[in-house]
Amino acid sequence: MVSEWRHALRARMRRWVLSRQRPARSHRLTQNRIFILPTRAGSAFLLVLLLMLVMAINYENNLIYALTFLLLGIFMVAIFHTYSNLAGIEVRVLDAAPCFATESAGFELELCRHSTRRFEQLTFTLERQGEPCVVDLLQPRQALRLYCPAPRRGWLNPGGVKVETTYPLGLFRAWAWLNLDMKTLVYPLPLEAPLPASLQPAAGHGRDAITQRNGDDDFAGLERFQPGMSPRQVDWKSYARGRGLHAKHFAGHQDPDLWLDLDALGSEALEKRLSRLTAWVLELSARDVRFGLRLGQFVLTPARGEGHRVRALSALALYGLEDAS
Amino acid sequence: MKGQQISRTAVVWQLLAVALVVLPHLQWLPLWVPVLVVASLGARLMIHRGRWSFPHWSVKTALVVASSGGLILSFNHQAGPETMVALLVVALALKLLEIYHRRDALIVLFVTLFVAATAFLFNESVWMAGYILLVVILTLAALNSIQQASDANRYRDNLKTALHMLLPAIPFMLVLFFLFPRLEPFWSVTIDTATAKTGLSDELSPGDISELSQSSELAFRATFSGEVPPPDQRYWRALVLSHFDGRRWSRPEPAVRHSLRAEKLTPLSPEQPYDVIMEASGRPWLVALDQPVAVEPGLRMSAVRTLHLDAPLERRRQYQASAVTRYRLQPLLTSAERQHYLQLPASGNPQSRALAQRLLAANNGDPQAVIRQLLAQFNREFIYTLAPGRLGSDSVDRFLFDSQQGYCEHFTSATAFVLRSADIPARVVTGYQGGEWNPYERYLQVRQYDAHAWVEVWLDGEGWQRLDPTSAVAPERIRTSAGEFFNANNERFSRGGLELEWLRDMRQRYDAFNYAWQRWVLNYQGQQSDLLKDWLGGSEQWRLILAWLLPTAAVFGGVAWWQLRPRRVRIKDPLERALLRLQQRLTGENCRRQPAESLSMWLQRIAGYWPEQQSQMLRLAWLDDQQRYAAGADQTMRTEMLQLCRQLLRELPGRRIP
């Protein structure tokens, strides 16, 4: 009951703190962000001091008084040391990598210190669960990666990031909530299934077809090589002659485009169909085949390459969701 | 937090702290406890070094059962501080065997701190205080170490952190120590120190005080706020003995004691206030300078002007009193009182009784003349010595007519006996006489060998007068302190070797230091209100709060500044430093170096803004690339770069936005 109540209070406090900040790519820990309270160990320490004080009073022993006051002084000094173990650190978002549903999304953060101070034992926790990550900031910069479980497709916002520390004595916990602007897309979980025959690139197409086509005369010309094109298409001879990288273009043998269509997959559950499509997008991209994607109103014209794959996966991730922005 | 593993360094710190905190307790703990502690420390060390593994739970259970049994047997259900400390020490020793996580380590360290505090119950010396401070530092280092990553291995950092935290706490402690009100104990406690103390007993028989003269143990120290009384006025009375059984003087029965009227004192000189710190004597009386007139509340003054406590003095105690050196005490005696102070056994010591009658007859019954003649006789024929030899039965006769040598108790006892036989009321007073003046801390230090006994005689119209027969036979004993007297008469008084001058000086300084420690630290409480009034100009609540608040705020402000002060990264390489300064100089809207730019890219981009310096900037860019990437880069390039940098820094205007 008490723990529930405490939990609710903490959540309320967290929401209040986070609502006072604007989401940003980087935050500096300053006094209006950092909170500090004794830990359980700190309370136990105070209890020990209380017992010592009783002993001092009862035995009228001035040296025990003095020791008690000394330790109380250390307790107070610990407030400043613990606080300064957070103050001044800059936390920056480096990268938020997309992932597939049920995996964990990784968020890469970078810590910077703007002085020679050492910051030790900083614990980073995401608001939405996830393993805490403990780092020492002994260099000017330090990267860390936080993982957040991604149960569903769509945008994943891991919420605020909590930075906390109990260093150097464990008597106090200083913490700060940071509203970092980081979210990532979660693609649907790929559901492995063989490509249906209608979608099988015709024999002689795809990767194998390209090798065969080398002997054909339907060579349409050269186009400038773009990253993402298959190295098999590179015209190595012209490269050897010093004319730069070019890819062979076979205009005459344009394949009939492959279309991945959500509606054509029958009456299975939407998520299942999306998962299947995801698997096929991956498969086709791996084979470097041109394909188009039709998701209800949304149409992605046939293309290939890394950019196309990401666009297709993003469309699948966001299909039918509210926050498709 | 619980799951956190602790580092190997943390284990070492903890073992060190525990070993040191147990050390001072070893001398009184039952022998098996130190054995258990050493075994447990050894075992933990072996585990630490990977030779042994952690003990099985059955072993731990057996140890717990065995040591609980041991504690019950050793302490036999006594609930004193010894039992508590022994319990804690045993618990520490056993807990050492299962430190795995942070929480275990925290328990060990908190108990260590508590045990450190208990050390002061048994020893309050300044050495112990220093030692415990060391233990606290080690414990802090251990606390710091357990908070670090489990692979951290930085002993020096732990120690540095501990000191950084300890130092600001010291002024905080001092302020609180002086301002914190000392409360009355919640329940009464006694510490069983169990050592027989030397000191005055409540009887006086021949040889008692000469025995004490062998002890240089401290009896008490006194300070005077006014004038210090001269040596021959330093009579510290402890007990009045008015009952004689033929050999031994003692206090009358309690019933008789309570029937005596409180004696009336008319002061003839101003009151002299003084402070005494009396060492624990194990007896329920205190000393007071002749004659006490006022004592602080809490002390009882008996009818015969001696100070008493309700319980034996088991701890050092500080108290205030004041005295008058000239006085008229009890000028009238009732017949019952007169009877009481003339009491003698029915028979015994016939020669002394005869002497009394002779003296009385020779002086026509004038008591003063009797006293003068008796003292003159002491002065002529008697020897003052520490080794008077044994006296048989009728000790007064043997002393007066056979041996004729003795120490103060012999003279006192004989004088009182003779006076009583001559129908003059008399009584024996025991206490201390003299003392050594310490010039460094300005106090009088009285040791056990200053113990003394003298006579009080009642004269018609004048009341009780002090009569010290020792002053007749050895006046220099009264004029100087006993220590000096024995030194000067070393051949006659076998009291060890002669003290060298510088040794004596050293001893006095050391003693002065100890005294200051006791007065300002151990017994700080009585003088609190006066002292604070002097310091703060008053003792109102707000002054106290301010006196606490201001220094505390200063200390913690200092700590906060020290912790958060800007600590710029210092670049050692002069070239790197110059390049950084150049970049800091050129921070205009368009010319700030972008994170993705290399130094040479940046210089090439912005060189156009300053046509005059363009060539130098481009040269610098080229040189930077060369010295970074080209083979055969050498020091001359760096030197040239440094020169270019400095030239640019001179020529380029600060912060101008092109």
Task: Please describe what this structure looks like.
The complex is a heterodimer of chains A (325) and B (658). Chain A starts with a helix and ends in a 7-residue tail after the last helix. In chain A, helix 2 (40-58) packs antiparallel against helix 3 and helix 6 packs antiparallel against helix 7 (306-318). In chain A, a hairpin with a 6-residue loop joins strand 6 and strand 7. Chain A has a 5-stranded antiparallel beta sheet with strand order 2-11-10-6-7. A 4-stranded antiparallel beta sheet of chain A has the order 1-3-5-8, with no helix packed on it. Chain A has 3 domains: 2-185, no CATH class; 188-201 and 256-325, no CATH class; 216-254, no CATH class. Chain A is elongated, with a radius of gyration of 30 Å. Chain A is an alpha+beta fold and 325 residues long. Chain A is 32% helix and 28% strand. By secondary structure, chain B is α+β, with helices and mostly antiparallel strands. Chain B has 4 domains: 8-148, no CATH class; 203-505, no CATH class; 530-562, no CATH class; 574-651, no CATH class. Helix content of chain B is 50%, strand content 13%. Chain B contains 24 helices and 21 strands. In chain B, a hairpin with a 5-residue loop joins strand 11 (300-301) and strand 12 (307-308). Mean pLDDT of chain B is 84; it is low at 491-497.
